Amino acid sequence: MLEQLSQLWRNKTAVLGLVIITVFMLTAVFAPLLSPHDPLETSLYDQLKPPVWHENGKWKNILGTDDLGRDTLSRIIFGARVSLAVALVSVGLAFVCGTLLGSISGYYKGTVDSIVMRIMDMILAFPYLLLAIVVVAYLGPSLRNAMMAIGVTYIPRFARIVRGSMLEEYEKDYVMAARSIGARDWRIIFLAILPNCMGPLIVQTTLSMASAILDAAALSFLGLGAQPPTPEWGGMIAMSRGLILRASWVMTFPGIAILLAVLGFNLFGDGLRDALDPRLRD
Amino acid sequence: MLAYVIRRILILIPTLLGVSVIVFLMMHMTPGDPAELLLGERSTEQALDELREHLGLKEPLYIQYGMFLKRLMKGDLGETIWTRQKVWIEVKQRFPATIELSLVALCLSCFFGIIFGIVSATKQYSIFDYLSMLGALAGVSMPIFWLGLVFMLIFSLNLGWLPISGRLSVGIDLEVITNFYIIDAVLTRNWAALKDALWHIIMPAVTLSTIPMAIVARMTRSAMLEVLRQDYIKTAKAKGLSKFIVIFKHALRNALIPVVTTVGLQFGVLLGGAILTETIFAWPGVGKWMYDAVMQRDYMVIQGGTLFIAALFVVINLCVDVMYAVINPRISVQ
């Protein structure tokens, strides 16, 4: 464990990822303290103000304002909250369901396994984002439904990893030992085997956080996720489409925010994989 | 080999059935029932009742599913709510545009992805390697709908180099044969239309290709690194073969095996990404059509489109698996 931590620490890009994630999380937690304005406050006289480095920019709105005079920086800061919530809830849902299904599938094998894995195949039969779009289209557009939809589409990733590790670990001596002293199934699964499958699971969780942020932004961009006036990065980009010529900054900054947050999780996830996944180590 | 292919095709059947069950149930999961969705909120109870009777909504769920499946078998995806067209006809009209866009994007991502991957692997830890891998990471982290808008802002609005949206400029005549505009233009020797079509496809295709390109580049790099470490490469080098031949003839061939699977799986990313890209660039394909349907709540289109895309995706994945078995004989033995 210590060796892996130090390996992670030596990996500069992973540390950079961790720094980005930390900044992102702190921004989300302390949003009300950090943001200079109320993200929902409209201002008639401050519409479409450019960022501070433009000729007409003012320090009052560092990253400018949108067509309703709302401060872009404040909206981006509060947007971090929405994105973090989406990432935590949808990936959390996928993690719990996927781990449970994968454990049952890999531990009991046989019919249960076939049924669960066929259901996972069905979810995987929908290309990226399509299932989420369709689920939200039917349930009605809202942030809650978007989180649920993304969570459901991520279940197979976790289920497959856990099932694979379960099948592998099941044959090992310590599991045999646990069975022979009469430990119950759930005890063997959760206390003996699962802790040994944590490496790949943690990696998958981190990388899924990245794609969840991206997918949620895409859903909101299509008008299926967070609804206005919620400050959400994808939704902000959608709103700014009509302003692209007059005020390109309204569109630029939320995109950079998404890119950075996702990049942070991807960098850290890659570093974790190098450190935790023994199969990838040379 | 044949047994493997047959087994794979047999697995396809439960998956496709499952997809139809999911899509069918989704229609019934919506708040309110399909009749209410079709007629809207202000419909009378009598009209609702008649429509429910007509659609067979009063039957038990499994009988309804049976009827749904029977219609599917005949290739009947129902009628759209707004245009009262057969869904299948609308899919057929729009499908070539999506495939054309996806194929061009796939070619771009394979070509550049593989080249970047090879160069990165052969010059591991060089500046080029770091930059291209950072670029690849940025590529998978990029919201493509945003990237599309940025391209549009730079190349269409500011520089005026590329057309902002659509497949063909107004005033360009093209005799439509296959509905793949590039092919049609070549077939009819209409070079003006060909140039116009290519000009229109560049921006959406590049936008759509970023994620697959990044994934292919990373995959190629790691596969190449693994192969380059092996003994037969040392032998080839020791024989005095040129670096070029060692890389392209000896190493790349084996490294491409995992890359082929990755490329095949990217089709799903492309089909899903097409919804975003087509929406931004007003590209008249299946993706934009689905988006419009979502906005207008045309559930018949969503249902038909989803079934179509999912079925296509499953079949493509099957082809990828079979192709993988062909180029890598070890797999069919297992």
List keywords for this structure.
heterodimer, A: 282 residues, MetI-like fold, 12 helices, 70% helix, B: 334 residues, 14 helices, globular
Reconstruct the topology from this structure.
The complex is a heterodimer of chains A (282) and B (334).
Chain A (H helix, E strand, L loop, with lengths): L1 H9 L1 H18 L1 H4 L37 H37 L1 H15 L5 H10 L3 H28 L2 H8 L4 H9 L4 H24 L11 H7 L9 H28 L6
Helix pairs in contact in A: 1-12, 2-4, 2-12, 4-5, 4-7, 4-10, 4-12, 5-7, 6-7, 7-10, 8-9, 10-11, 10-12, 11-12
Chain B lengths: L1 H28 L4 H6 L5 H11 L5 H13 L13 H36 L4 H15 L2 H15 L22 H7 L3 H38 L2 H8 L4 H38 L5 H11 L2 H29 L2 H4 L1
Helix pairs in contact in B: 1-13, 5-6, 5-9, 5-11, 6-9, 7-9, 7-11, 8-9, 9-11, 10-11, 11-12, 11-13, 12-13
Summarize, please.
The complex is a heterodimer of chains A (282) and B (334). Chain A has 282 residues and is mostly helical.
What's the total helix number of chain A? Answer: 12
Based on DSSP secondary structure assignment, what is the total number of beta strands of chain A?
0
**Annotation field: number of helices of chain B:** 14
Compute the number of strand runs of chain B.
0
The fold-level CATH name of the domain at 93-283 in chain B is: MetI-like fold
Protein model, in words:
- The complex is a heterodimer of chains A (282) and B (334).
- Chain A has 282 residues and is mainly alpha-helical.
- Chain A has a single domain, classed as MetI-like (MetI-like fold, Orthogonal Bundle).
- Chain A has 12 helices and no strands.
- The model of chain A has no long low-confidence stretch (mean pLDDT 85).
- With 334 residues, chain B is mostly helical.
- Chain B has a domain of 191 residues: MetI-like (MetI-like fold).
- Chain B is built from 14 helices and no strands.
- Chain B starts with a helix and ends with a helix.
- Chains A and B meet through helix 5, helix 6, helix 10 and helix 12 of A and helix 1, helix 6, helix 7, helix 11 and helix 12 of B.
